[in-house]
C-alpha cells in the first residue's frame, strides 16, 4: 500500500461525515469500506461520493446485481435484489463499495448513475438483462448479453438451468427458430462403477 493511501477507518469517517444521515450503515471489513444506502437516497449519495472533497471517487469500476432470494431459506430477511457498486478515487488512492436494496422484489428499480459515470451504461444494462433490475433514467436500457427473443433473466435464482426456450436452425424456413426446451430437468447423481471382484468380493 502506498504511503498516501488513506486507511479504511479514516475513509469510513470521511464518508460518514460527507453523507450524514443518508447512510443506513457503513462498515469496514477485511480492509474494505462498504456503505449501504436507501434506494431513495442512492443518486444523491453517489453524486456526493464523486464530488465531495476527501471522497472524490472519479471512477465507477464495477456495478452488478445480486439476488438474495435463497437467503430466506436460512432465515435471513431483507430485500431480494441489491445493486452493488465499486468506486475508485485515483487522486486519493482509495476505494469504496456502495450497496443499495431495491424496495420492490416484484419490480426492482433504482436510479441510474449514468449521468455521473458513463461507465455505468453497460454495467446497468448487464444488471437489467441478467437480473431484471430497472435503472430509472437510463437512456438506453435494453438487453446486452442475451438474444432479442430471450425470455426471463438468467441470473435470478428461480431461473431454470435449462432456460425456458431453445433455439435451432430450421433448414426449411432458413432461419433460427425458438421452441420450448426439450430437456427434462433431473437430479444429477454420480454413478459408481466398480470392476468385477472389487475388494475381493464375488
TrEMBL record:
List the molecular function annotations (GO) for this entry: NADH dehydrogenase (quinone) (non-electrogenic) activity
Places the protein is found: Cell membrane
What this protein catalyses is: a quinone + NADH + 5 H(+)(in) = a quinol + NAD(+) + 4 H(+)(out)
Q: What class of enzyme is it?
A: translocase
Q: Which residues form the signal peptide?
A: none
| Keyword terms | Cell membrane, Membrane, NAD, Oxidoreductase, Quinone, Translocase, Transport, Ubiquinone
State if NAD is listed as a keyword. Answer: yes
Domain (NADH:ubiquinone oxidoreductase 30kDa subunit) ranges? 35-164
Q: What family name appears in the similarity comment?
A: Belongs to the complex I 30 kDa subunit family.
What's this protein's function? NDH-1 shuttles electrons from NADH, via FMN and iron-sulfur (Fe-S) centers, to quinones in the respiratory chain. The immediate electron acceptor for the enzyme in this species is believed to be ubiquinone. Couples the redox reaction to proton translocation (for every two electrons transferred, four hydrogen ions are translocated across the cytoplasmic membrane), and thus conserves the redox energy in a proton gradient.
- Name of the protein this chain belongs to: NADH-quinone oxidoreductase subunit C
- Gene that encodes the chain: nuoC
Amino acid at each position: 500500500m502506498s504511503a498516501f493511501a488513506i486507511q479504511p477507518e479514516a475513509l469510513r469517517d470521511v464518508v460518514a461525515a460527507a453523507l450524514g444521515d443518508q447512510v443506513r450503515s457503513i462498515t469496514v471489513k477485511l480492509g474494505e469500506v462498504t456503505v449501504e444506502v436507501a434506494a431513495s437516497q442512492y443518486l444523491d449519495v453517489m453524486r456526493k461520493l464523486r464530488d465531495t472533497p476527501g471522497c472524490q471517487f472519479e471512477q465507477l469500476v464495477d456495478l452488478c446485481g445480486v439476488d438474495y432470494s435463497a437467503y430466506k431459506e436460512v432465515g435471513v430477511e431483507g430485500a431480494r435484489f441489491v445493486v452493488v457498486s465499486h468506486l475508485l478515487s485515483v487522486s486519493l488512492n482509495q476505494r469504496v463499495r456502495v450497496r443499495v436494496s431495491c424496495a420492490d422484489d416484484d419490480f426492482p428499480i433504482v436510479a441510474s448513475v449514468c449521468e455521473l459515470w458513463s461507465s455505468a451504461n453497460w454495467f446497468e444494462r448487464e444488471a437489467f438483462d441478467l437480473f431484471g433490475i430497472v435503472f430509472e433514467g437510463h437512456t438506453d436500457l435494453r438487453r446486452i448479453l442475451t438474444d432479442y427473443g430471450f425470455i426471463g433473466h438468467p441470473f435470478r435464482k428461480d431461473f431454470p438451468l435449462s432456460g425456458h426456450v431453445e433455439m435451432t436452425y430450421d433448414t426449411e424456413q432458413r432461419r433460427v427458430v425458438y421452441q420450448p426446451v426439450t430437456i427434462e430437468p433431473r437430479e444429477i447423481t454420480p454413478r459408481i462403477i466398480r470392476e468385477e471382484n472389487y475388494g475381493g468380493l464375488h
